[in-house]
Write a structure and sequence with these properties.
- The protein is globular.
- The protein has one domain.
- Strands 1, 2, 3, 4, 5, 6 and 7 form a seven-stranded antiparallel beta sheet that branches.
- The longest helix has 30 residues, at 32-61.
- A hairpin with a 4-residue loop joins strand 1 (67-72) and strand 2.
- It is built from three helices and seven strands; from the N terminus they run H-H-E-E-H-E-E-E-E-E.
- It is α+β, with helices and mostly antiparallel strands.
- It starts with a helix and ends with a strand.
């Protein structure tokens, strides 16, 4: 009887995946267009959340220390600020933030990142002497960098025409 049970279990172990295979084959995979649309929506959501988060800070100090907005695997956008970064030089803070994000991506906790920081405007002919830099990456591959010149006037931040680098 035990031998019969063993053979039956072995038979079922091979039969069940075979019966389920047609269901997997018929499952809809998202199209390339749908994936691009999802990535674009995530980038837009992260960008808006980041700009909302920095607008007041940028007016007070004329810039912001590096911070990130990430989209987790549940498609929720979250702001990540590392408290110790506020005390670090900007270049060191940026490196610490990037390494922290790499660790989170490797753990499978996030699918997209947007790193925000301000720096001197490389375009000397521009009226704006500072730019907001936003570097975005997605686990599916797309990357995007935006440079947004800004000025501060009468307690408000005014953002210029953004330059996008893909």
């Amino acid at each position: 009887m035990t031998q019969l049970k063993s053979r039956l279990m072995t038979f079922l172990m091979f039969l069940v995946p075979f019966l389920m295979a047609p269901g997997y084959a018929n499952a809809q995979q998202p199209s390339e267009t749908e994936i691009k649309k999802m990535i674009q929506e995530q980038f837009e959501r992260m960008y808006q959340k980041g700009v909302d988060n920095l607008e007041d800070r940028i007016v007070v100090s004329g810039g912001v220390k590096p911070f990130a907005v990430v989209t987790d695997t549940g498609d929720k956008a979250k702001t990540i600020r590392i408290k110790q970064i506020e005390e670090m030089p900007a270049d060191v803070a940026l490196e610490v933030l990037r390494r922290s994000l790499i660790a989170l991506v490797k753990k499978g906790k996030i699918g997209a990142t947007a790193v925000f920081y301000t720096t001197a405007n490389p375009n000397k002919e521009s009226e704006a002497d500072r730019v907001l830099v936003v570097e975005m990456e997605h686990i599916f591959g797309p990357t995007l960098a935006q440079l947004v010149p800004f000025t501060i006037d009468e307690g408000k931040a005014f953002f210029g025409e953004q330059v996008v680098v893909e």
